[in-house]
Amino acid sequence: MKRSEFWIKTSKSEQSEAEEPSKNARLLTKAGYVDRQMAGVYAYLPIGFRVLEKIKQVVREEMNAVGGGELVMSSLQPRDLWESTGRWDNEAVDVWFKSKLKDDTEVGLAWSHEEPILETIGRQATSYRDLPISVYQFQTKLRNELRAKSGVMRGREFIMKDMYSMHASIEDLNAYYERVKQAYVKIYDRLGLGDDTFVTFASGGAFTRFSHEFQTLCDAGEDWLYLDREKSIAVNEEVLEEAAQELGLDKSKLEKVRSAEVGNIFNFGADKADEMKVEFTKEDGTKQPIFLGSYGVGITRVMGVLAEKLSDNHGLVWPESVAPFQVYLVGIGEQGEKAAAELYTDFIQASIEVLWDDRDGKHARVGEKLADADLLGITYRIVVSDKTLEQGKVELKPRLGEPKLVTSSEALAELS
Ligand code: ATP
Ligand code: MG
Fold first, then answer.
1. What is d(CA 210, CA 189) in angstroms, rounded to the nearest whole number?
2. N or C, where is the chain less crowded by C-beta within 10 Å?
3. Which of helix, strand or coil describes residue 341?
4. Residue 127: DSSP 8-state
5. CA-to-CA separations, 360 to 90, 336, 337, 363, in angstroms, rounded
6. How far is CA 143 from the centre of its chain?
7. Ligand showing the shortest atom-to-Cα distance for residue 144
């Protein structure tokens, strides 16, 4: 992309803490990734959208690898569906946005999809021969959250990946649950959060004693984690007593740390389908409610956590797997700009994702371009100037590393 054509508006100054209490939102706003529409509601601008798509792609590949079929459910949901499980009027679900059709029919705005998925896909699977099934989506969830002070980490509107698996037996569900747990470990590794993300025992799980959360160490997180580093076991505050006992953990040795829940997995057993009467016919001809697992990843929250954790004084520092572009290209001087134009074409041909800052001197000075390369957090920066060209080279600099002079073909090889 050429900067002159691709819309990015960066700012020199950051909002005050009074204007925007959350660091991730201040930084992402300054760098032109997001725009706050109202408390807890953000628009993802073109460069922010690219990061979201990168995160989604990592998640998509791992969900496809465990046999998930991607679909997209609706945002408007009928009331009846949620009444069957008692979750329409329920104190435990205090995040509903509800509305009415012209004829006064009540509808809910999607905050989750367990009930709609079971009704739609579970109801189609009438026989044991149809099972197992696994489907997932990336969807904008709407939740009337009480507090929204964590920037994109807690939105009233946010993107979630939610996968649901349906099985003919609890053994099959349990085995699949373990497979998805491993897929999640891979996801957070690939997103650059592997070292700081812990599979955490949490409350819930209709069939199993615990559910599992994926918690990333993060000062801006809203959760507390109790960590046994030696055993690499983490326990959520809610289930501390119970889990410590069950897992034989010495409570005095547990480290209490701030964390953000970046995902979770949940084993419903047959409870949900039992409530909804979503049954299939077993091999022996009898009826059985479907066994359900549900698996979430907070896509926009991951973006916020990355912004919180990996930034420095100059701006964002994306892991290569999610950076909006691989390289930020700047030409300085007449010859430098000409060489940058050629390099740009070479990069495009080599399928390297390049953002070429081709703005002229009226629109941006060299210093501003270099500052933007850092602020945007793009993995590499290449500067071509009359000076580097004298040596037949370009300057290649990793976002956090030292610059070095290389030939264009060496740069091409390094980025390919
Ligand atoms: P939390 O305890 O943080 O409210 P939750 O238990 O409500 O999370 P789920 O309903 O299971 O979360 O949603 C799945 C994932 O979606 C969470 O693990 C989290 O990463 C993300 N998520 C949940 N609520 C929000 C929100 N308001 N904004 C952004 N991401 C969210
Ligand atoms: Mg919640």
1. 23
2. C
3. helix
4. B
5. 59, 13, 10, 6
6. 17
7. 1
Ligand 1 geometric centre to CA of 291 (Å): 23
Q: Give the span between the Cα atoms of 315 and 399, in whole angstroms.
A: 10
CA distances from 315 to 42, 100, 153 (A): 19, 44, 18
Ligand 1 site residues, Cβ closer than 6 angstroms: 112, 143, 145, 154-155, 158, 160, 261-264, 296, 298, 300-301
Measured by CA distance, the residue closest to atom 16 of ligand 1 is: 298
Number of residues written out for the chain = 416
Beta bridge partners of 166: 133, 292
**Phi and psi torsions of 73, nearest 5°:** -90, 175
What is the dihedral sign for C-alpha 26, 32, 38, 40?
Answer: negative
Separation between Cα atoms, residue 379 and residue 320, nearest integer Å: 6
Instruction: For residue 296, give the ligand 1 atom closest to its CA.
Output: 14
362 has a pLDDT exceeding 80: yes
| 221 phi and psi angles, rounded to 5 deg | -70, 165
What does DSSP assign to residue 2?
Answer: B
Structure tokens given for 264 = 């979770």
Nearest CA to ligand 1 atom 8: 261
Q: Give residue 151's region: left, alpha or beta (phi > 0; psi -120 to 50).
A: left
Whether the per-residue pLDDT at 91 is higher than 90: the answer is: no
CB 224 within 8 A of CB 175: no
pLDDT band at 232 (very low <50, low <70, confident <90, very high): confident
Please provide the average confidence, as pLDDT, over all residues in the chain: 96
